[in-house]
Amino acid sequence: MKNATDRDIVYLAALLHDIGKFFQRADPDGMKTTRLLEPEIRKLESVYCPNQGNYYSHLHVLWTAQFIKNNNLEFTVDDLNLMRLACAHHKPGKIDEQLIALADKLSSGMDRIKSNSINENDDNTQKSFKKVRLHNVMEYVSRPDDYSGIHRFDIQPFEYNSALDASAVKELSFSNDKDSFTNDPKYSEVWQAFSRDIKSIDTKSDLKTWIESFTYVLEKHARFIPSSTVDLPDVSLYDHLRTSAGLAISLYDYLIENYKSINEPNVKLPDIDTPFALLIGADLSGIQSFIYNISSKNAAKSLKGRSFYLQWLIDNVLYCFLKKTGLYRGNVIIDSGGGFHVLAPNTAQVRQTVDELRTTINEWLFNNFGTRLFISIDYIEITSKNLLQQEDISIPSLADKWTELHKKLERHKVQRYDKMFISEDAYPKFFEPGIAPKFDDIDDISGDIIEPENKIGKNRSRQSQLQIELGRQLKNSAGLIVAEDIGINSQEKFFEFDFQCAYTKKGVLIEKRNEKYYYKGNHVENGRSLLFNATDFLVPLFSERNVIKGFTFYGGNTYPADEDGEPKTFDELAGEGDFKRLGILRMDVDNLGALFKNGFSRKKHSISRLATLSRSLDFFFKGYLNNLVGTHKSDCYILYSGGDDLFLLGKWDVILEIAEIIRNDFREYTAYNPNLSISGGIVFVKGKFPAKRFAKLAENEEKNAKSHKVSNGEISLEKNSLSVFGFALNWDTEWPMVKHLYKTIYSKLMNGELNKSFISRVLTFYEYRKLTPDNVSWRWLLAYTFGRMIERDKNQREFLQAFLTSAFTDSYIKFGDYSIFLNGISTNQAGEKLISGSGNSFLDLAAVACRLAEFKWRSLT
Q1: Average pLDDT in the 711-737 region?
Q2: Fewer CB within 10 A of the end CB, N or C, for the chain?
Q3: Burial of 492 (0-12, 13-18, 19+ CB in 10 A)
Q4: What is residue 567's DSSP assignment?
Q5: 836 and 733 in contact (C-beta within 8 Å)?
Q6: DSSP 8-class letter at 330
């Protein structure tokens, strides 16, 4: 590696400080008999390991030292020695060693130096800590401090790609009951895969480029390795190491600004009340309206491209910030859902960069998209006291600071153009009427007026054409190269991400053919190569220089295509036959913002735990859903999925089925934690229905689900619902009833056991009751009508009588082997109490069931 800097050494030392835990657990022998530690490394025991009287503790630092030696990382820059900094954090002497120790402590929110003093020479201890598995952090959200989770992750090589069957991805990434494991964790096997990938990183690049590629290798292999086997092991080693590294460089840059050199004799680490760091947040507003506010022409092609375009816009803003400030990927705490959170040093350069970026990018967004898109970017100061777990509520915790930051971001949203208003040309730009555009100057996709410099043809802007091309080519793409310089043949084109702040504007998609990767170019320099949804990312590129290799989980770059490989139109996606409907599904995790702020008590709130939680949730939406939806790839596709929400399109009955599967899998993925739920809304429309209208209808259904409450007087539950046909149905108490009734009615229709008039009669009584809620005469009309039906069709007497009784009394439904009481308490498979109450009447639920049965019947007949 070339061009190592002092900052690289400090950052990498923190990134590697606990890598020895991974290496030590993969060692089949203990300290006394290990064959992996060289004699000269074993001699460092008294140098780096605390003496506990009759034994040395924290022996993992010796394996850290061996790892550094094995991989030729023994760098020294300005008296900053990588091995010394990475290994001395439990026995720090010099100020630079104390800095790494403090970063370690702040990442975990606790004083690791005073804990974990166990005798690792003891054989029983050796065997026990090598069997500890990572707990599922999602199981602990909003739980009491003394709650003991039962779910664990398997430790095995993480070889993921979006072509895997959903069940295979479950085995890789879902936690299981701790008693279900019969074998010991495969630490040795994972370490060998980790070591092989490290050897594949280009060593001819700058050290920083190597570090950033190594971080992706670390994410792949250490994502399910517990950072601690003594304290609550619910934080992954990867998240602890990356947040420690982000904290270390923040501390270092802060000291350099104030002292110029860390080696000066008067240098002191910032005290507990000194704001040495900044928590920076960014949030893009207008995403939904931008993506879906398009004409029906080319909608299927451009929607996917527009969604991808916005995701890479945010990525460019983040990457631009990191480049301008010289920060690293480990400084990024959260990067999902249309925004990001970064931990950065509290320096003048960083503060100025945030302010400049806010102005620059919003001016570019305004000039290109008017008021549709706006990005809020701001920061708050952070002290060590904020990051440490404090029981004293008078001390602002990390959760309090998180809330403070988001209030600032919301303030920017209501004062969007305050800086632009004071410019000289503000008045005509905002208040004077513009010149009426010619027809050819209106974009036929977005309806926006095209500026002359942005026009590339009749009724087409540069951005809209890019989005269509992206949407068309994403299906066959395996990744993306974005770089300062990409050499391509003159006949080929690259994508120009003309973002005002972009360092790397040129991009080409990577294709995969016959298990090999290709791109349209002959050299790449100073950029990033990211594979989509595949962790075999260390692929060689022809003639590369300083290219960061990595992977990104991306929600759905494939889509159903016609015979020519073009995206199916929405009408084609809706199905075949005389009756066909397109289903649109929007889902969102309930109360996620509040869970990030208050999901962990002050004793457990730490930046590494938040990072683990965010990354875990993000994988469900950006990773696992690709595999789940892939089983229905001819009938539906992901328009957007990431962070905590999703938007799917497809054949109506497939979308209905997938909504329930997603909900059930989300429950399983989050270890059946009752405090984590997901709500969604579905609409069914004809295939030629305008995209911007069906997106709005789906949004309304989703809002309806999130405002739904069920109660039986004793317990009340909110959200955790699905809304369809304007009815919000609790997933646990109402949807099972509707689903069973829908399936039963449909089956009886198909078998000729019920006449279709049954559906019309039920819907008539539902409308009658809805229009005259205070008039009880509907009950007697219902009893009379169903009484006659029972007399005419004695074979269906049991079903019709149960239906009549349920509708008349609004108390329960019972037919066949199915029984759910509308008012009472039941338990789920996790043994938790659930309400069996309903905010809907039986006729409400029956109306939904009848409409679904009618849809299914008409689709097939």
Answers
A1: 86
A2: C
A3: exposed
A4: B
A5: yes
A6: G
